[in-house]
Specification:
By secondary structure, the chain is mainly β. About 0% of the residues lie in helices and about 50% in strands. The termini are close together. The mean pLDDT is about 90.
């Protein structure tokens, strides 16, 4: 399991990078605001899968398709993290 350092929201897009391809990725938003997650180079404050933060945390899981040989690449994801939101990222190494 890979756990990245928490990303504290600053109202900007951040690149999500792993040291190797991964089987799945889980994003959890804690606090307030709406984070956005998606493909690197396409995410903004209005584009990407919305993840509405809550005090208890809300998670979004990106599993890989059934094909076991498929993996997400090391720099495939990016996230917009608004002020007031903390994003945690976990993944399963491939």
């Amino acid at each position: 399991m890979i756990n990245l350092a928490d990303i504290t929201g600053a109202g900007q897009v951040v690149q999500i990078s792993f040291t190797q391809p991964v089987k799945w990725v889980r994003f959890t938003a804690i606090g307030s605001g709406t984070a956005r997650v998606g493909a690197a180079g396409t995410v903004s404050s209005t584009v990407g899968e919305p993840l509405v933060a809550s005090t208890g945390g809300v998670s979004l899981l990106f599993p890989v398709a059934i094909e076991p040989a498929l993996r997400y690449q090391k720099t495939e994801f990016a996230a917009y993290v608004p002020a007031g939101c903390t994003l945690t990222v976990a993944a399963k190494e491939g």
